[in-house]
Amino acid sequence: MGKTRTVFVCQECGYKSVKWLGRCPSCGEWNTLVEERDFSEESFSLIRREDPKVLPVSSWENEKLIRESTGYSNLDNALGGGLVKGQVVLIAGEPGIGKSTLLLQVSDRYARDKKVLYVSGEESGSQIALRAKRLNINNPNLLIYPEISLERILKVLEQENPSLLVLDSVQTTFSEKLESSAGSVSQVREVTYRITEYCKERNIPAFIVGQITKEGSIAGPKVLEHIVDTVIQFEGERFNFYRIVKVIKNRFGSTGEIAVFRMTDRGLEEVAEPSAFFISEKAKAPGSVVFPHTEGSKPVLLEIQALVIPALYTTPQRKTQGFDPNRLALILAVLEKEAKIFTRDQDVFVNVAGGMTVKEPSVDLAVAMAVVSSKKEKEIPQDTVIFGEVGLSGEIRAVHFGDLRLKEARRFGFRKALIPKNLDLEIEGMEVLPVSHISEAIEFLF
Ligand code: TYD
Ligand code: MG
After folding, report:
1. Calpha distance 7→141 (Å, rounded)
2. What is the pLDDT of residue 226?
3. Distances, alpha carbon 329 to alpha carbons 307, 375, 377, in Å
4. Under a CB-based contact definition with an 8 Å cutoff, are residues 243 and 234 in contact?
């Protein structure tokens, strides 16, 4: 046997180097490179498939994907119609958000007529039993296996041959072949590769739980994204009951799709109409705007709130929840330069109500108008929705899915929409107000 090859792996981003470095050249973090045995070449060759045929594109159409339900129709829709055989789904989220609860519930429904193996390294069998009792789950086809050794898990998989696998979590599982500790980059990769290989060979779907922390993750889902088929993020505020499943990557469907749940004392419940849910508590006061959000095929109406008050300290605060604070700073600068709305001696708070995080720039105009509304202490008409990207010179730029956004707003009784002029949209039953500049939007509303 030859000499064992070792590599230095950045625990932050997964960068590999043949020699030790104080600073990772890829992500710039200090002291994150750790020496590990190099299993990468072996691991890569693990996922092998049959030799594919060469066929014209239309001939492949017949190879229809067979989908199976997760037992929750909103989750099925977000995944593009259910789980595909052999599909590996990484579910990422902060501790305590409800990943284990969701997967135990999905396992229970899946196990109505099939065998499910739920492997847990996070909790003991009795802890899971306690949760199951709370959720009223008592299914003989749902097998719980509290284990952390990958080799033993694979052995049990061979014996039990389940129709669905849940691995909770990738950070607590480790391969005995590797010297590094559980949760390190090479361990989580190895575990994910080997589980994926098993699932592809046996043609069974799997959910793998990946913990992430608020500060950003060490050996988290980022380094696993390219191995798995699908990445879903489970988010929400821990002390709030909304829980949102967001599809970040999907080889078998589109990204940006969402499914909304509500956490109750008996577990998670599907929310069939997320828009109704999010705007049900909307404030009838200055600073509140309804924004039709979408990154995928399903829009959802969200309430954007802004609060502008005289600053308490010399450096005024800009605080946000569910929205990028740097983007807010930019919008405030544009409002000042292009519309003479001054907030430099004011604290500005912006909040996406309901615990959802919005990253798409189409929310800019809604945020800007919420700020102006709070500053002027003038309400925005209750029947109005707003969307559009704000450019650096105050121009309002076109965004995707305008049509879908308007339809969703109309469905919930909204009658007016402030939208980018370039979209050139019309919709029956709604008054569309096209604007090309931020000052024009302010004139329309106030
Ligand atoms: P959990 O699924 O353990 O989160 P994760 O696996 O992401 O760490 O969820 C834990 C939280 O959920 C915990 O704070 C209690 C709450 N919870 C409920 O509110 N209702 C329930 O029925 C259950 C099972 C949990
Ligand atoms: Mg858990």
Report:
1. 43
2. 87
3. 14, 15, 20
4. yes
**Count of C-beta atoms within a 10 Å radius of residue 431:** 12
What is the Cβ-side half-sphere exposure of residue 261, based on CA atoms within 13 angstroms?
Answer: 29
- pLDDT score, position 33: 85
* The token pair that represents 189 in the structure block: 């990769």
Predicted confidence at residue 2, as pLDDT, reads 46
Below-70 pLDDT ranges, the chain: 1-4, 39-50, 62-63, 213-221
Neighbours of 196 (CB within 10 A): 22
Q: Which CATH architecture has domain 66-272?
A: 3-Layer(aba) Sandwich (3.40)
d(CA 116, CA 164): 5
- Give the whole-angstrom CA distance, residue 114 versus residue 144: 14
Q: Whose CA is nearest to atom 14 of ligand 1?
A: 96
Q: What is the distance, to the nearest Å, from the Cα of residue 120 to the centroid of all Cα atoms in its chain? A: 22
The token pair that represents 60 in the structure block: 């492949």
Let me know: does 135 contact 120? Beta carbons within 8 Å: no
Protein residue closest via CA to atom 15 of ligand 1 = 96
Can you tell me the distance from the alpha carbon of 426 to that of 430, in angstroms, rounded to the nearest whole number?
A: 8
pTM of the model: 0.85
**263 CB within 6 A, ligand 1:** yes
CA 402 to mean position of chain CA atoms: 22
Best residue among 101, 106, 237 to mutate for probing ligand 1, ranked by most atoms within 8 Å of CB: 101
Backbone angles phi, psi at 53, to 5 degrees: -90, 165
The continuous run of DSSP H or E covering 375 comes out as helix 364-376
CATH 3.30.230.10 fits 277-445, yes or no: yes
Q: Compute the distance between CA of residue 156 and CA of residue 146 in angstroms, rounded to an integer.
A: 11
Segments making up each domain of the chain, as ranges: 6-37, 66-272, 277-445
Q: How far is the CA of 96 from the centre of ligand 1 (A)?
A: 6
- The secondary structure of 39-102 as a DSSP string is -HHHHHHHS--PPPP---GGGGGGSPPPEE--S-HHHHHHTTSSEETT-EEEEEE-TTSSHHHH
User: What pLDDT sits at residue 4?
Assistant: 62
Residue whose token pair is 């064992």? 4
**Type and span of the H or E element at 261:** strand 258-264
Cβ of 391: how many Cβ atoms within 10 Å?
Answer: 16
Write down the pLDDT at residue 236.
Answer: 83
- Decide: 135 in ligand 1 pocket, CB within 6 A: yes
Q: How many CA atoms lie within 13 A of 66 on its CB side?
A: 5
- pLDDT of 178 reads 85
